[in-house]
Amino acid sequence: MEDNPPDYELADRMALTEPAQVQAIAHPLRTTILQLLHERAATVTELAVAVGRPKSTVAHHVDVLARNGLLTVVRTRKVRAIEERFYGRTARMFHVAAEPSTAGVVMPRDFNDFEVAARESAMAFEQGTLEGFIRHARISGDQASQFWERMAALVDEFDRMPRSGETVYGFAVGIYPTDHPSLPHADG
Predict the structure, then answer these.
(1) Which of 7, 11, 101, 119 could be disulfide-bonded to 40 (CB atoms 3.0-4.6 Å)?
(2) What is the spatial distance between Cα 186 and Cα 36, in angstroms, rounded to a whole number?
(3) Cβ atoms of residues 152 and 93 within 8 Å
(4) What does DSSP assign to residue 42?
C-alpha cells in the first residue's frame, strides 16, 4: 500500500457551493463510496463488491458524485474489449461553503456526522473498545474557529495514514455550540 493514500492525485480541500453537491454527499451510500476512495481509486465493480450492493445501484451513485464534481475518472484500463474506469475523489476533504441564495433556492443541510458516528460506534461501545471524549468550554467564536482548524489538520493526518491494518477505524471530531450550563463569571 502507498504511504500516503490514495493512489492518485487530488486537491486537499474543495468547497461545496451548490445545493446539488451537498445533496450528493448527504446520502449514506455515497459517503461510504467517498470514504472507500480515500484508500485508492476503484471501479464501480470493486465498489459494488465492497458495499455489497448491486453494480447498477453503485453506478447510479457514482454518477451522481461525478456529475457534481466530487468524483472523477483517474485512470482507465482495457479489459477485453471494454474500457474499465477507475474513479477517485476530487479532494481529500469536502466542506459546505454555500452562500445564502437570493433566488429562493434552499441549501440542503449536510448530514449529521455524529449521528453516523453514534450508529457506527454502537458495537464498539458494547464490546468495550470505544475510545472517546466529550468536553465543553466557554470560548469565543474565534477560538472555536482556530480550534476547528487544528482538528481539520488531524482529520487530514488520519486520511493520509497508510492503509496497512486489518480493521477499519472511525474517527469523529466536531465542535458545536450548546446550551450546556456554565458558571457565572467569578467575582474578582
Answers:
(1) 7
(2) 50
(3) yes
(4) B
Which stretches of the chain are DSSP H helices? 19-25, 28-36, 44-51, 55-67, 113-127, 141-159
Q: Which residue is associated with the grid cell 475523489?
A: 89
Closest C-alpha among 89, 74, 110 to residue 13: 89
Rounded-to-integer distance, Cα 22 and Cα 4, Å: 27
In order along its 188 residues, the chain shows pLDDT tens digits of 445 678 888 898 898 888 889 889 888 899 899 989 988 999 999 999 999 999 999 999 999 999 999 999 999 998 888 899 999 999 988 887 766 555 666 666 666 677 777 878 888 888 988 888 888 888 899 999 999 889 888 888 888 888 888 888 888 888 888 887 777 787 76
Q: Quick one: cell of 122?
A: 454502537
